[in-house]
Design a protein that fits this description.
EreA/ChaN-like  fold, 441 residues, single chain, 9-stranded mixed sheet, 11 strands, two-stranded antiparallel ribbon
Length: 441
């Protein structure tokens, strides 16, 4: 198949492609800082350059523009360990702070780039008063049982009688021995069994709670417990929806992420007196506007689309693409991570078009005229924690109008695999396979 080379579009892109080095251009940082929410994507969960540039951009937003929260595509309780560490509430090493990420895919957050970033963030926070320290949070919803444990641990310290009530409610899940797929099947097919009322009642009680912090030195401890209870409620709904189809469960997951951003934003605003600046790290599939992609044809929305609607004018969406290189990914869910060769971008894809532009890495911050030219639907690649080169066209590409999908794009023509930290045995039960299998985004 001949290469896709629409010359007028190619020349227009070349005219606005800003070659860049290892650090983010000032024009990009300024554009991001003009909005309260900086959504920083990635075209894979295992590419070093995407993680490194997101970290560099976030450091600039923190130091130069007062960003107060980093929110990742990870679970609230797992990120909570890092949050306490970077804010100086826990001792230990960066590796110990990252040890909460025990379940597949561990390399998504247990890697050298994140370790270096959180070490920098802890050092930065040491020079700040406690109420100005930057937090590190998760917004995903796969940690139902981990969040149950966190709610119970908090209540055991703060209100033992409330802890007993919570145990009785959460015991509803005991019938399924932590098999959430079995629970979703039973609850989603009209058997008459559901834990919905129990988890809603527990969330309602915690949201009404006036319990003081449980002597852990963290004034936000009640809020963290409330968020864990909210996660349990939303995860229960998610697993009930799993067997209704991909769109239903995908939409619930991304809605939970946006609701988490809203709850965190309100909490930090109450503390600071103004809406906080936040940097969000997640896959392009979550952070690029779904209404500009083939996802919308399947009835799916995502974080990028919902944040644009919920906070118009306050969200900046930054996407990343690559043409070729290597990536850290697995061949199946729960399989061993490998360094895999990324095939050159397919003809007719944005990756192939950007490869023709020229610079090894560049920023495209299009003006309105070029943005209009970027409305043509081309293929776009998405590599999650699973990468299957042999079925790449079917399993890893979708249609996208990139000018509407993102406010800006960084293209890095050749990238390399993310370096993970050594594996360690899990001490908590494995999470069930999520509906994003096999792509895992």
């Amino acid at each position: 198949m001949p290469a896709f080379r629409p010359e007028p579009l190619l020349q227009a892109i070349r005219g606005q492609a800003h070659p860049m080095g290892q650090e983010p251009p000032a024009a990009l940082v300024d554009a991001l800082a003009a909005r309260r929410l900086a959504l920083l994507g990635e075209a894979s969960h295992g590419t070093h350059e995407f993680y490194a540039l997101r970290a560099a951009i976030t450091r600039a937003l923190i130091v130069q523009h007062g960003c107060k929260a980093v929110v990742i595509e990870g679970d609230w309780p797992d990120a909570g360990r890092i949050n306490r560490w970077v804010r100086g509430l826990d001792a230990g090493s960066a590796d110990e702070a990252l040890s909460g990420f025990e379940r597949f895919p561990t390399w998504m957050w247990r890697n050298t780039v994140v370790r270096e970033f959180i070490a920098w963030l802890r050092e930065h926070n040491q020079s700040q008063p406690p109420w100005q320290r930057v937090g590190f949070y998760g917004m995903d919803l796969y940690s139902l049982f981990g969040s149950v444990r966190e709610v119970l641990a908090y209540l055991d310290r703060a209100d033992p009688e409330a802890a007993q009530r919570a145990r009785l409610r959460y015991a509803c899940f005991d019938h399924f021995q932590q098999n959430l797929q079995a629970y979703g099947y039973a609850a989603g097919f009209g058997t008459g069994f559901s834990c919905e009322e129990a988890v809603v009642a527990q969330l309602t009680e915690l949201l009404r709670s006036q319990s003081p912090a449980a002597d852990e030195g963290d004034p936000d401890e009640l809020f963290h417990a409330q968020q864990n209870a909210r996660l349990v409620r939303n995860a229960e709904q998610y697993y009930r929806a799993m067997f209704r189809g991909r769109a239903s469960s995908w939409n619930l997951r991304d809605l939970h992420m946006v609701d988490t951003l809203q709850a965190l934003r309100a909490h930090l605003q109450e503390r600071m007196g103004e809406p906080p600046r936040m940097a969000v790290w997640a896959h392009n599939s979550h952070l690029g506007d779904a209404s500009a992609t083939g996802m919308s044809e399947q009835g799916e929305w995502n974080v990028g689309e919902l944040t644009r609607k919920r906070w118009p004018g306050e969200t900046f969406l930054l996407g990343f693409t690559t043409y070729q290189g290597t990536v850290r990914a697995a061949s199946d869910w729960d399989a061993h991570a490998e360094v895999k060769r990324v095939r050159p971008g397919l003809p007719g894809s944005w990756e192939a078009l950007f490869h023709e532009v020229g610079p090894e890495r560049f920023l495209l911050l299009p003006d309105p005229a070029l943005r209009a030219q970027l409305q043509a639907p081309l293929l776009e690649r998405a590599i999650g924690v699973i990468y299957l080169p042999e079925t790449e066209r079917r399993s890893h590409y979708f249609s996208a109008r990139i000018g509407a999908q993102f406010d800006a794009v960084i293209h890095i023509d050749r990238t390399r695999a993310l370096e993970s930290l050594p594996e360690h045995p899990a001490t908590t039960p494995e999470v069930e396979v999520p509906e994003t299998y096999p792509a895992g985004v």
